[in-house]
TrEMBL record:
Protein name as annotated: Methionine aminopeptidase
Organism: Desulforamulus ferrireducens
HAMAP family, per database record: MetAP_1 (MF_01974)
Keyword Protease: yes
General function of this protein: Removes the N-terminal methionine from nascent proteins. The N-terminal methionine is often cleaved when the second residue in the primary sequence is small and uncharged (Met-Ala-, Cys, Gly, Pro, Ser, Thr, or Val). Requires deformylation of the N(alpha)-formylated initiator methionine before it can be hydrolyzed.
Gene: map
Quaternary data: Monomer.
Amino acid sequence: MIILKSPKEISIMRDAGKIVAECHALIAEKIKPGINTLMLDQMVEKLIRQRGAVPSFKGHHGFPATICVAVNDVICHGFPSSTKLRDGDVVTIDIGAHYKGYHADSAWSYAVGHVSPEITKLMEVTKECLFKGIEQARPGNRVGDIGHAIQQYAESFGYGVIREFCGHGIGQSLWEEPQIPHYGRKNRGLSLKTGMTIAIEPMITNGGWRSKLDQDGWTARTIDGSICVQYEHTIAITEAEPVILTTLD
């Protein structure tokens, strides 16, 4: 069932989104070679709770941590660990906050120290994929328009678009209908309506799109060992422009 949100509900989600954005601002300051993601997890949980919210992911279907961590060939849902990040790594940190009954969710990829030009390009293209997807999130368009815009742009660079994991509706539940694939065909799928709140989160690789799960049952990584990066915002569909909820502005 699609749950449309009132302006008041969207305002609360905007507050939740600002908390998530504050966490990403903190991560951006702290990311460097030698730091471990368990430390980042603790910092983020502390900040979320200081803001009167709770971590969306911790305990969700048994997930053990506040942040999801994806280093290099990991696609999503990795655990924080005591392993130190190394110069040249790329790491995606996914953060959710539950505030006054509503969730906001945003993932961002970070270069650790100095990354290769190849990785820098992958990051730039993936970020642009996110905003091309957001641009299509308008009343009267369809879910397939979002996926098509992302897929067309990513594949024009020879990149792979992960298909086993997708974006989603979000609100009082962390994951709501509809699913938002990051590939697709124009004018196909569910019609988008004012009041929908969704998370768009393209996961793009410099190789193939197929994934596998580690033995922990959570950590997904590319089968071919290619690098994956991801950018995600929670947005609200309005009569005018799509509104990004997970920013500091």
